[in-house]
Amino acid sequence: MIENIRLSFRGIFAHKMRSFLTMLGIIIGIASIIAIVSTIKGTNDQIEKNLIGSGNNTVKVALYQEDLEYSFDAGIPNGVPTVSKDTLESLKNIEHVQGATLYRSRQSYQAIFRNNTSLDGGYIMGVNQDYFSIAGLAIKQGRGITEDDNKKYRQVAVLDETSAKLLFGEENPIGKTQCH
Predict the structure, then answer these.
(1) For 120, how many CA atoms within 13 A lie in the half-sphere containing its CB?
(2) 125 contact partners, CB below 8 Å, separation of at least 6
(3) Are 93 and 137 in contact (CB under 8 A)?
(4) Do the beta carbons of residue 91 and residue 97 sit within 8 Å?
(5) Cβ contact 95:88 at 8 Å
(6) DSSP readout, 17-41?
(7) Residue among 145, 148, 143, 111 at smallest CA distance from 126
(8) Lowest mean pLDDT among 92-96, 151-155, 174-178
(9) Tens digits of per-residue pLDDT, 89-148?
């Protein structure tokens, strides 16, 4: 065995250039494999981020008509099924999904007002009690929408700071009702 090792080293030193080129080929081959595997891993991670969403990991699914988000003012188009409670529950049961909620949003002109002040072009969103936590929004004052609000069709609203200041000025908007 020692004789075989001695014979191997003698062959390496006798053919230095061939030994160097063989080692160089092995090094380049291993480096190429590492580079390819790293590139594939990075590409897969990027695709996963694009599909799942990065940042707050919230995915919004919307219906588009050409380049614009579809407005449901005219109703739901033919062939587009509505999302049932069963479908929503099945979405919540998908692995890695922490929550799911439905909402409806539309831009409304002169539909949001108080006294003589109007929020022209403001957005109205119909949400349920899960929307704020899933969207990563926090209520600073007052409370969010509750399940009881939805069941009893209560006319309640959550305003952002800008809308509250425009409609109520310095007055506290909590508990106030719309005046005509």
Answers:
(1) 1
(2) 103, 104, 105, 131
(3) no
(4) yes
(5) no
(6) HHHHHHHHHHHHHHHHHHHHHHHHH
(7) 145
(8) 174-178
(9) 888 888 878 888 877 777 766 677 777 777 777 777 888 888 888 888 888 888 888 889
Side chain identity at residue 146, one-letter code: T
| Contact residues for 49 (Cβ-Cβ < 8 A; gap 6+) | none
Would you say how long the chain is, in residues?
A: 180
Over the stretch 19-47, which tens digit does the pLDDT of each residue have? Answer: 999 999 999 999 999 999 999 999 988 88
Phi (first) and psi of residue 124, to 5 degrees: -110, 130
Cβ-contact 107, 83 below 8 angstroms: no
* Ranges of each domain in the chain: 2-52, 64-168
Asked if residue 95 lies in contact with residue 102, where contact means CB atoms within 8 angstroms, the answer is no
More reliable by pLDDT, 168 or 177: 168
